[in-house]
Design brief:
427 residues, alpha/beta, seven-stranded mixed beta sheet
Length: 427
């Protein structure tokens, strides 16, 4: 009996030790995203999935089982947040056929690949702005630890009007078009708008995304025209507020942006042809611009590859690329609030960090670009007390790069250490 009791006690002690195992991260430089200051020679102690404490100097671990991570020659930041991705896949020259060929399982496997690549690029949280609905299952699988990926806040299916940018039947044979409705994310009245939001809630979406104007990559002539009435947008935002869901509007054309802002949409995605009048409206109604500069550059480049896009898409792609950066620069200078988002999926996932370089080239200081991808985005998602800073009690979402990004912003394209929720994914 004594041996049996000893084995039980030993097993219990082993479980206790394993449960209390901590990480000691020895950090040469850490960016305080709130103050903008760089603090040196600090030890971050991570317990479970949280930062338990931060101490001056490189302190010794307390238990032999604790793990030490040497980042003394690295620059450490909180995990980055991308507020505009499409995690289910990537646009290529076969994408316009894939919706007729791929099954949900095909999309799921591809989305798992994209999610892991995104995480390894240092983006520990993302907002997914529209897919087939597989994105909801992917979020759940990541939360359960079944696959590797960032923390996902997803819109599920985006909401469009008939023939609008997110109408899933655009470009289809007449026999396949049918008449999609709110269940498929297509609405044509305030009443249907309310139902579409509730459908997204029922399916498990976290946020709401509408396509307020035409789009560049949809098989339709215009990329600028407004596609929702103001009443429809107000019905969407009022209902979304009931469910505490952040709202976003894809918008290239100015009139569609103005309706979205007046209707209560919080983030304007792209904003390509935004007028100065609309910029003032953004400030008045406390709306944020998500510029997606990387996507515009990639779309412009791909438009010159024969057969990459359908012919109807090419003129729109050539027009948007050169315009969007100039619009962002003007909006920033006028004081429009900026959130960080890339539209990854329109270009390969994992290249999200390129957005920082384009933002800085357009006139945004490196610190503000980093704050847009941390503090601002965390606030918009309602997780600012847990994510976006390296502070005690915050989630242990921590990344590291080789250089100081305040001096070389492009170092954020080469993240060499990634911890999310207290677990190391790249070292």
């Amino acid at each position: 009996m004594k041996i049996k009791h000893l084995l039980i006690l030993t097993s219990f002690l082993f479980v206790q030790v394993a449960f209390s195992q901590e990480y000691y991260l020895y950090c040469g430089k850490i960016l305080d995203t709130q103050s903008g200051k760089v603090v040196t020679n600090q030890t971050i102690v991570v317990s479970k999935n949280r930062i338990s404490k931060i101490q001056d100097g490189f302190i010794s671990k307390t238990n032999p089982e604790d793990i030490e991570i040497d980042l003394k020659n690295k620059f450490v930041l909180p995990g980055l947040i991308d507020l505009h991705v499409h995690i289910e896949g990537e646009i290529n020259n076969k994408s316009y056929m894939s919706k007729y060929i791929d099954n949900e399982a095909d999309i799921a496997f591809e989305s798992a690949r994209c999610a892991e690549i995104t995480l390894l690029a240092g983006f520990t949280t993302v907002r997914d702005l529209g897919g087939t609905g597989v994105n909801i299952s992917l979020r759940n699988a990541i939360n359960k630890g079944l696959v590797k990926g960032p923390r996902i806040y997803t819109a599920g299916k985006a909401i469009a009007t008939t023939g609008g940018h997110a109408d899933p039947t655009n470009g289809s044979n007449r026999k396949l078009v049918g008449d999609p409705g709110p269940h498929e994310g297509v609405i044509n009245s305030p009443e249907e708008a309310v139902k579409a939001v509730r459908e997204r809630y029922k399916e498990g979406a976290d946020v709401i995304k509408i396509t307020a104007t035409g789009g560049v990559l949809s098989v339709a002539k215009s990329g600028k025209n407004p596609q929702f009435s103001l009443d429809e947008i107000k019905a969407i935002t009022t209902t979304a507020k009931d469910y505490n869901m952040l709202t976003a509007a894809h918008a290239h054309g100015d009139e569609g942006m103005q309706r979205a802002i007046l209707g209560g949409i919080k983030t304007i995605e792209h904003g390509t042809f935004m007028s100065e009048e609309t910029m003032e409206m953004m400030k008045k109604y406390d709306a944020y611009l998500v510029p997606t500069l990387t996507a515009a550059k990639e779309v412009e480049k791909n438009a010159e590859i024969a057969g990459f896009y359908p012919e109807i898409v090419v003129p729109k792609a050539r027009e948007v690329g050169p315009q969007i950066k100039a619009t962002f620069a003007k909006a920033y200078k006028k004081g429009v609030k900026i959130a960080f988002g890339t539209d990854a999926g329109v270009f390969p996932h994992g290249k999200n960090g390129m957005e920082f370089g384009y933002m800085v080239e357009a006139g945004m200081p490196p610190l503000e670009a980093i704050q847009a991808a941390t503090l601002t985005n965390a606030k918009l998602l309602g997780i600012e007390k847990e994510v976006g800073q390296i502070k005690p009690s915050f989630f242990a979402d921590i990344i590291a790069v080789d250089e100081n990004p305040l001096q070389n912003i492009r170092t954020l394209e080469r993240v060499i250490f990634v911890m999310k929720d207290g677990k190391i994914y790249k070292n």
